[in-house]
Design brief:
Distance between the termini: 80 Å
Radius of gyration: 26 Å
Largest sheet: 8 strands, antiparallel
Strand content: 35-45%
Number of strands: 26
Shape: globular
Helix content: under 10%
Structural class: mainly beta
Number of helices: 2
């Protein structure tokens, strides 16, 4: 088919930066468990480097090019930054409101959004989500000047280097980009619930393998309790029985309580299977004979931020 340039609806451009989220990294796990909104973010300049050719010669001719490793860097500019960024900027707290500089810099992740536009939809055509991992902010200049008749807000700026994270089937990477015009809308909404949080789940930055698995599987199913053992209203249950609950999605947190019918709490040791879907509650002592036990299934939230409505099950032990 003959090529055709600049067709209506195909004059694309990218602009803006908004919805910045900072995710301080947990130093013990390497995960990014809690995000905070970055207000006043004005620019993120991505600056990849490396991938330079190193020519190798043989028989008086160029034999091949060896390419150096590629690195991802960026410059972040903002009018302000969240308090949680202070450790990432090398600040420590001596007391409330008293900070000290030149401290160890905490790695962090970052998420921000840019607009995709075209000649027919303008900036409403779509957007890209940019995820950055393993970032370290370098010390930066802060210029303070007297206020005059044309005052200007101070702009903070940080040079950022990164350490790539593992990606199954690919080389490690420090950056990930999701194009809203090319992915499933429901799955994208599920990812944004993870990134931005919901009424019942805190925002967090998923690693690339989790993002890949989410888009490969499509939008997650509504959270449900698949089964419970013993069954609801079961009788003649052994006093040494465990309570096993199976969910259809991986669970992020729960607040499940086992009690006797008089309200006495039964202390249990919980354990999850490798997939994070099967919870086994092992009572710390044998249950009592001929007693009604109530399992209150509450506070269950999956990794997609979906909450399960509280439900109550019960069973009776053997006489």
């Amino acid at each position: 088919m003959k090529l055709d340039w600049d067709k209506i609806g195909e004059r694309f451009y990218e602009t803006g930066v908004k919805k910045g989220v900072l995710y301080p990294q947990n130093s013990s796990t390497g995960l990014y468990p809690l995000g905070v909104a970055w207000n006043g973010l004005t620019a993120v300049t991505e600056s990849p480097s490396g991938a330079e050719p190193n020519p190798i010669y043989a028989d008086d001719i160029k034999y091949l090019n060896l390419i150096s490793a590629e690195e991802f860097g960026a410059t972040i500019e903002a009018y302000t930054y969240p308090d949680e960024f202070a450790p990432c900027d090398g600040s420590g707290s001596l007391a409330t409101g008293v900070s000290i500089g030149q401290q160890k810099r905490q790695p962090f992740g970052l998420c921000y959004r840019t607009a995709l536009g075209n000649d027919t939809d303008g900036e409403d055509h779509g957007y890209k989500l940019h995820l950055i991992y393993g970032a370290i902010a370098a010390p930066s200049e802060k210029a303070y000047a007297t206020i005059n008749d044309t005052p200007e807000a101070i702009t903070f700026s940080w040079e950022v280097s990164t350490t790539p994270v593992a990606v199954t089937g690919f080389k490690p990477t420090a950056s990930l980009t999701i194009d809203s015009t090319k992915v499933n809308a429901a799955t994208l909404a599920s990812l944004e619930d993870i990134l931005y949080g919901t009424d019942v789940a805190d925002p967090r930055l998923p690693l690339p393998d989790e993002v890949a698995a989410l888009f490969a599987a499509g939008a997650p199913a509504a959270l449900a309790l698949s089964s419970i053992v013993p069954d609801d209203e079961a009788i003649n249950i052994a006093i040494n029985a465990n309570i096993v609950l199976t969910f259809n999605n991986k669970i992020a947190r729960e607040a499940i309580v086992v009690t006797e019918d008089d309200g006495t709490i039964v202390a249990c040791t919980p354990s999850w299977d490798a997939a994070g879907k099967v919870l086994t509650l092992n009572p710390n002592a044998n249950l009592s004979n001929n007693t009604v036990y109530i399992v209150t299934i509450g506070g269950v939230v999956d990794i997609y931020g979906q909450a399960l409505a509280a439900v109550v099950k019960n069973f009776i032990t053997v006489a």
